[in-house]
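[Archive record]
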Amino acid sequence: MKRIILHWTAGKYKPNRCDLEHYHFLIDGNGIVHNGKFPVSANENCKDGLYAQHTGGGNTDSIGIAMCAMLGYKNSTQIGNYPITAVQFERTMQLCAQLLQKYNLPLSNKTMMTHFEFGFKNPKTSSFGKIDVTFIPSYPHIRGNEVGEFIRSKVRWYMENL
């Protein structure tokens, strides 16, 4: 694996069948981690169609993690009825730290990124224009273009304190 790409499902607090098919790990509103249908190793070769299809143009060698939340999100003032919970967010950061260590990946903006960041860096993919993750309800002062660095700082803290 080369990287982790972080998402939100744009759904409710529990993973549904579609969510389970598209991500390797899903964190529900209570912070419980659910395994997706496909193991991480399935994304080593995406030519067979049997892999977690979480990031258009970036699935190969990528681990897809999603927070089950954000149904109805429009912007930071209209966040819908299922905002990312604080416990969910923290558990996600902890899981990212564990996976970076497990796969011996250094923490950087190339190895740990949001779906938004991937799309921004790869504008010719179907991931361009995706807005996950550009807002964290428990940290509303963090602006959309700063979320990736903030996430990496949280993951760094977990890596140092595991």
Notes: The chain has four helices and five strands. The chain has a mean pLDDT of 97. Helices lie at 17-22, 86-102, 115-121, 147-161. The radius of gyration is 14 Å.
